[in-house]
């Protein structure tokens, strides 16, 4: 399998050609922040459609963005996932890839979900919060709830909600608490 370069400019929009790293720069643009928090939360890429950002909670298509082809989408997404994940995705169209990407330069972490739908490959990238709030700051109805969750040694905990409701922040806060409080 060929090497994929995150700096390779392959996506045509706004009168130019962009790499995945160019597309990610919107997440770090100070002009798109309010009180140090990015107004851009997600990057949506889907074969047959132009690239979209979730900006202030609404999906917005990138200006003059061309619809993505399978090849261009792979050039954008494949640099961010492992060789094994690439192979697995190509070998099994029913498979969803859940992964993370750490953009060291901007100190931003992303959660990626890469999957197939009827049109081809799609990917959603969600920027994770730079600051993980303390578990008692995230709004559990009672401290008993998070104390019970974090004391579990096995089992399944479901965190559900609509887009932007704080699922990723809640999970990050729970994991951070467990990592700090449990002995290795």
Folded structure, characterized:
It is built from five helices and ten strands. β5 (40-46) and β6 (52-55) form a beta hairpin. The strands form three sheets. A six-stranded antiparallel β-sheet has the order 7-6-5-10-9-8, with helices on one face. The protein folds into two domains: 11-127, Beta-Lactamase (2-Layer Sandwich), CATH 3.30.450.90; 135-181, no CATH class. 16% of the residues are buried. The protein has 184 residues and is an alpha+beta fold.
What's the arrangement of secondary structure elements?
Blueprint: E1 11-13, E2 16-18, H1 20-24, E3 33-34, E4 37-38, E5 40-46, E6 52-55, E7 58-61, H2 70-77, H3 83-91, E8 97-103, E9 108-117, E10 120-127, H4 143-151, H5 167-181
Helix pairs in contact: 4-5
Unreliable sequence segments? none
Give the SSE order as H and E letters: EEHEEEEEHHEEEHH
CATH structural fold name of the largest domain: Beta-Lactamase
Structural class, judged by helices and strands? alpha+beta
- The tally of structural domains comes to 2
What is the rounded distance between the termini? Answer: 38 Å
The spatial strand order of the largest sheet comes to: 7-6-5-10-9-8
Q: What is the strand content?
A: 25-35%
In CATH, the architecture of the largest domain is 2-Layer Sandwich
Mean pLDDT: 90
Counting DSSP E segments of at least 2 residues, the number of strands comes to 10
The total of helices stands at 5
Helix content: 25-40%
